Amino acid sequence: MKKLISLLLCFFLLPIAIGNGTSAETEETVVRVLLSTNAASTVTVSLSGEYAVGEKTVTGGTVTAALANGTITVSHSKEGVLTTTKTSARLSRVGTDASTLLTFDNYKHGTRVYYGDFVFYNDSGTLRLINYVDMQHYLYGVVSGEMSDSSKPDLLKTEAICAKGFALAEVEARASKYFDVYDTTTSQLYYGYVAADKNTIAAVDAVWDQTLRYNGKTVKTYYAFKLIKYAVKIIYNVISAVVNMA
Asked: Residues 6 or more apart from 18 whose CB is under 8 A from it?
């Protein structure tokens, strides 16, 4: 009977397929992550490497964005004011080596390191900080946030695929005009780049171009181990009851 139940469980799961991502998806997908700032009117970011704001390039030091009277002023610790804007300003990564990183004192997660670009955004009088990061580096940060680096490799890989499904569905929906996901459990825990999490990085690299799809569409996967365990147990009991009644 257990073999029959296993076959029936497989039947229920068959419609969901794992496929390789398209070239555009795996190479160009950018996730816009709203970082936790506690609605501060001023945020300071430390630079490692070369970055640009508009046509002005800076290396190292810190960049501070302050919102006052409807205007964002972006300044560098050595170069002074880089730009002023009433809408948004982008701190763009210019350096290409692995040490080109941004460090920010995240209100929810403490001091964190980030790949990609930062955008300072005026949200109707509230200063927002958004991390524009490619999908692969985003997954590094989510798996680091939601799992222990000492977890079994297959569990880390499973989390990476699930995290990607959720994020990609949010990106495709573009529900917000200026960000896709929060860096908290409102979406998924996102810890930026944790270089010490070697197992996590290896697991993401192994599966990051794989995507869960159903009828050709991305599956928005919610990862919760206990919930999955209970759901499978319920399905198992229901199938067992059906088989016993037959």
From this structure: 161, 210, 211, 212, 213
